[in-house]
Automatic annotation (TrEMBL):
Domain Peptidase M14: start-end pairs: 30-311
Active site: 279
Keywords: Hydrolase, Metal-binding, Zinc
Family as reported in the entry's similarity comment: Belongs to the peptidase M14 family.
Organism: Rhodoferax mekongensis
Residue ranges of the TM segments: none
InterPro entries: AstE_AspA_cat, Peptidase_M14
Cofactor(s) recorded in Swiss-Prot or TrEMBL: Zn(2+)
Protein name (record): M14 family metallocarboxypeptidase
Length: 313
């Protein structure tokens, strides 16, 4: 079978090697500053949070000079073993802007309301190289959100797992803030197919907010609490022509399920009872960038409110 060319790199039907990865990397252009937009915001929160570096991403090759990115986490100052612990992550995919800025806004403007009620650990921008390039993949053309597994080849994923490891068994919840964008269909999915030597199969992008639950540990009441809060800000994605979302059957309105651990997803790293991946749609004509950030904040607050209620029940 002849596979038509659908991406401007590689040979159809053949997986990429180092030369193609290098060509892909050369196409990536720095478009914004992690230091100016993320690190500076984190620095301003030292009065409210315990701020720590949990590692460093270091990238270089024969063409590109070395780049170093400190990975920063925020930790509640009022930490107590008597309180439920929640992990909040953003920017696992660096191009998903509202995940990063939703996490930062929550940390700056809303987290104080939860002091003494819940322990919070936040990693607002897991993938800084990709954040600067507005890319999904990291420097090595790897998807960090398929790389949360033992001996991860993705520096970003491995560093976050090391941060979380001492607290395993203590997490009540983890909410991972994401977006689904039009470039998923125009760039990312064709690139994945080309990289892996497979044919590109077109799909649809859902117009609205939805959630991903865990097939191994579904928590429908938790997901619905988040959806109800977000629906006050932006619309919930309708089903596609097959009655699902991005080719996956619904488990409930606005909710699909993935095998989080099996797929190496970020939301599967804690072993928490309550986990969710948010997905906003910033390219919708019915949503603004501000609404997308506000939706991520609302989702985080709703998740925490649910955990606190559950802990006191």
């Amino acid at each position: 079978m002849t596979i038509p060319r659908f991406y401007p790199l590689g040979t159809p039907g053949q997986a990429w090697g180092p030369a193609e990865v290098q060509q892909w990397r050369a196409r990536q252009v720095r478009q914004r500053s992690y230091a100016d937009e993320v690190l500076s915001a984190v620095e301003q929160m030292r009065a409210q949070w315990d701020v720590e570096s949990y590692g460093e991403v270091v990238y270089a090759d024969s063409v590109h000079s070395e780049e170093r990115f400190p990975l920063m986490a925020l930790r509640s100052r009022s930490w107590s073993s008597a309180l439920p612990t929640v992990l909040v992550t953003g920017g696992v995919h660096g191009y998903e802007t509202s995940g990063v800025h939703g996490a930062l806004r929550f940390a700056a403007e809303h987290a104080a309301a939860y002091a003494g009620r819940v322990n919070l650990l936040m990693a607002p921008c897991v993938s800084p190289w990709a954040y600067e390039r507005i890319q999904r993949w990291n420097f090595d053309a790897l998807d960090p959100n398929r790389s949360f597994r033992a001996d991860s080849p993705a520096q970003e994923s491995a560093a976050l797992m090391r941060l979380v490891a001492p607290l395993l068994g203590q997490f009540a919840a983890h909410i991972d803030l994401h977006e689904t964008t039009d470039t998923d269909e125009s760039e990312y999915r064709p690139a994945v197919a080309a990289r892996d030597g497979k044919p590109f199969e077109p799909a649809t992008i859902p117009d609205g907010f939805y959630l991903v639950d865990d097939t191994g540990n579904p928590q429908p009441a938790f997901q619905q609490a988040i959806l109800q809060a977000v629906e006050r800000i932006t619309h919930i994605a309708p089903t596609d022509g097959e009655g699902g979302i991005i080719g996956t059957p619904l488990s409930a309105r606005g909710v699909i399920e993935y095998d989080m651990v099996g797929w190496g997803l970020c939301a599967g790293i804690t072993g928490a009872r309550y986990t969710s991946t948010t997905e906003v749609y910033p390219d919708s004509p019915r949503a603004t960038p501000e609404q997308c950030v506000a939706a991520q904040v609302a989702a985080t607050c709703a998740a925490l409110d649910f955990v606190i209620r559950a802990a006191s029940a």
